[in-house]
Write a structure and sequence with these properties.
Elements (H helix, E strand, L loop, with lengths): L2 E5 L4 H14 L8 H7 L5 E7 L4 E9 L7 E10 L1 H4 L4 H4 L3 H12 L7 E6 L5 H15 L5 E7 L11 E7 L1
Parallel strand pairs: 4-5
Antiparallel strand pairs: 1-2, 2-3, 3-4, 5-7, 6-7
Helix pairs in contact: 1-2, 5-6
């Protein structure tokens, strides 16, 4: 599978059609936050859409979040969605994951903005720290431009989050 990353700008209609399809047909994990994307999508400062190059089919998306964080700090790969129908085809989950290409596009976009000083990505609190280390190394290697460092402490990602739900994170200094 060959992947192409595009900005949401100019692709909004396609994105919303894809959200409609998911809301009608998807029955799996994380369905609860999909409806909020339509309402809150403009809260996020930058979106990346990932297309299967051969078919130009949307297979993944994610965005950059700056709300709920200190000034200058952003979370990349927020609301990452990788289409379940594409996830396992052609070994996509491990060999052709869209995470690194989306991370690279987001870091490059941040590099054109002077205000941002640090980017993080997070994992759910119940994930093992070794998973965070593995993903940080994988993203660093595959982007060729990031230096994500896994942190031992956990981070609060929204105001109403209980301490036991804080998330693991890795940071990259911009």
């Amino acid at each position: 599978m060959n992947l192409t990353i595009k900005d949401l700008k100019g692709n909004e209609e396609l994105f919303f059609e894809y959200l409609d399809k998911l809301e009608k047909n998807y029955k799996g994990k994380n369905l609860d936050w999909l409806p909020y994307l339509r309402r809150d999508w403009e809260k996020y400062i930058f979106w990346t859409l990932c297309f299967e190059s051969d078919t130009d089919e949307l297979v993944a998306f994610s965005c950059i979040q700056d709300h709920f964080f200190e000034p200058g700090v952003v979370r990349i790969l927020t609301r990452t969605w990788f289409d379940p129908d594409s996830r396992f085809g052609h070994g996509a989950l491990w060999r052709h994951t869209p995470v690194a290409p989306m991370a690279k596009a987001q870091i490059e976009w941040l590099g054109t903005r002077d205000f941002y000083t640090k980017a993080i990505f997070t994992l759910e609190h119940f994930r093992d720290h070794r998973v965070l280390e593995h993903l940080a190394n994988k993203i660093n290697k595959r982007t060729g431009i990031t230096r994500f460092t896994p942190k031992k402490d956990l981070i609060k990602t929204h105001p109403w989050q209980e301490e036991q739900e804080y998330q693991r994170y890795a940071e990259h200094i911009l």
